[in-house]
Amino acid sequence: MKKLKVKVFSVIFSLLTLFSFIIMISSLTSNYISRQNSISRVLNDISRPINRNQNVESVNPYNAIVPKDETRKIYLDFTIYTIILDENGNYKELVNNTNNDQINESDVKNIATAIIKKNDGNIHVGNLFLDKYSYVFTPNNTLIIMDNTSINKLLINQLGISLLIFILSEIIIFIVTNLITRWIIDPVEKSFEKQKIFVADASHELKTPLSVMIASAEAYFEDRNDKWVYNMKNESERMIKLVTELLDLAKTEREQDLIMETNNLSEIIEGSILTYESLFYEKKIKLQYNIDANINLFCNSDSIKELMSILIDNSIKHCNDKGKVIVNLSKKNKLVILEVKNTGLPIKKDDEEKIFERFYKVDSSRNRNSNNYGLGLAIAKNIVLMHNGKIFAHSANGYTTFKVIWNQK
Predict the structure, then answer these.
(1) How far apart are the first and last CA of the chain?
(2) 23 assigned to some structural domain
């Protein structure tokens, strides 16, 4: 179970982390490409050739000449240095600096000289995290240098903020994943725990008659008394009953398709009651039944007969001496309601749901019969669920009632 929990947690955490990482990378990449394209557009615009035949209005330090009818955008968001080159392509002079701060021209000359030596293409944007400058060589024998320092800082700050957000999101993902894992594993853990209890209880129930049989066999070989043989016979019958109930329970819990058809539920219930009439008479228990005629239900008739057998047998076992059992079957709107009531000691409020669990037994006063293993009601519940119904138990006004409800949609 621990390995399963680790696997589920790892899968969910990895998927959510991957999703968060992809969002972060996509955001950073989108922003980086946007900045890169913006710089590239500015450099392209600045380096665009000018038709010198047009009327000249003023001198533009970016391209040296600006046409009268063409408006040039001044890119104040960027720090740009415009350098005039000589005939050999070497540094000649700095003609423009958009930086408000005073900068030493010799520093600009050193920067320009280093760029001229590389001269690796017309436009160079470079890595906006590492490269300090982007530049372009224009047709007018001019070098335009763009300072990337502010963009470097901005992108690095955004990267830092993104990483911080990613770390915080990982903490949130860890907490959420832990909650989701618990929510997923909890039913599995409960089922696994019930399975362990079931195996332990079944082993205990089988161990007891086997121990008696072995002890009786050993005793029989010593004194050849027939009572030991009878003990073995009785314990064998108990084992057969237990194994049969275990097989019935396994059959009802197995996800299989039952052969369903529309049956006359009224006739099935009445037939099941009549089967037990002699036992009611023998036990001196008064039987009363009120069954509405011709109530049909889409069901498996054999399973419904088994359900009735369990409920009636349960009511007889737990009915007080000279008590009373009442069976009601009615239909209200689309609801088909089956009730099996018996007088006797009530079920405690806390036990009303637990009695449908496998091997669950209430106090000994309600389990006088030694062959009661606590499997019958678990089987009954599975049968009801297979027929899309609900089963309840409660005690009130001197009666213990088992109610089954089917909703005919």
Answers:
(1) 40
(2) no
Tell me the pTM: 0.52
Helices (H), 47-104: none
More confident call, 71 vs 238: 238
Within a domain: 175:
no
What value, to the nearest 5°, has the Cα angle with vertex 309 and ends 308 and 311?
60
- CA dist 130 and 147 (Å) reads 12
pLDDT digits over 170-188, tens only?
A: 999 999 999 998 898 888 8
The pLDDT value given to residue 190: 77
Q: How many domains does the chain have?
A: 2
Q: What is the torsional sign of CA 295, 300, 302, 306? A: negative
Write out the H or E segment, with its range, that includes residue 65: none
SS3 of 228-274: the string is HHHHHHHHHHHHHHHHHHHHHHHHHHCCCCCCCEEEEHHHHHHHHHH
Tell me which H or E stretch contains 329: strand 324-332
Asked if residue 230 is part of any domain, the answer here is no
142's enclosing H/E stretch is: strand 142-147
Residues of the chain above pLDDT 70, percent: 80
DSSP assignment letter at 291: E
DSSP SS3 for 129: coil
Are 326 and 341 a contacting pair, CB within 8 Å? yes
For residue 35, tell me if it sits in a domain: no
Containing domain of residue 304, as a range? Answer: 256-407
Domain boundary among 84, 119, 147: 147
In the DSSP assignment, the letter for residue 99 is -
Q: Residue 293: helix, strand or coil by DSSP? A: coil
H or E stretch at 53 = none
| Model pLDDT for residues 347-362, shown as the tens digit of each residue | 888 888 888 887 666 6
**Residues whose CB falls within 8 Å of the CB of residue 342, separated by 6 or more in sequence, listed in order:** 315, 316, 318, 319, 323, 324, 325, 326, 399, 400
Domain boundary among 147, 176, 202: 147
Q: Is 331 helix (H, G, I), strand (E, B) or coil?
A: strand
CATH number of the domain bearing residue 341: 3.30.565.10
Taking the C-alpha atoms of residue 93 and residue 308, their distance in angstroms, rounded to an integer, is: 106
Residue 51, phi then psi, degrees to nearest 5? -80, 105
